[in-house]
Amino acid sequence: MRHFLLASALILSCNLISYSQNKCELKIGQAPELRGLRLGMNTEQVRTLIPLLDIRPPDEFGFAHAAFFFDRMLDAGRSRLKFNSKDISNISLQFLDGKLIYIGIVYADSIKWDSLEEYIARLNSSLNLPAVWESGSFDKTLRCDGFQVNAFLAGGTGTLSLHDTTAEQLLATRKMEKKDNQKQTFRP
Fold this sequence. Notes:
By secondary structure, the protein is α+β, with helices and mostly antiparallel strands.
């Protein structure tokens, strides 16, 4: 019995070590910076990098968004940017309470990746990300403490998104509370 308990404890500790090695331990403050953009930046900090950015007014939940198409810009407009838009087709940004909670980038088709694995390897090395991505049908996801990174290829062209999962959960809660409140206050 004693040997069984010892063996069970050893197997359990090996499984825990293996689990922790296959999990992203980065915190939201360690989320990668994408060309100067970081989760948690306020709208004015983002506008400093992309002055022409048109951020929609926040809705009743404090949610706002913006999209910018660099591939449609003239060179004169590009010179006003403090944001390195090289090899980027477009960018999508989302804000909650004036803070950046989502960065989505579609890269230009000037760089074609042979496989998603090749693209992920480059992301890992350039952004210092751990190689513990989860595979989906067409994408890969890196789930960390308070944020996640998603990557996929569209015709060999890379797409990358960075999400503040805590803020997204807060937004979902606000929407659910409104829905529940509407049901509670409904009078036939």
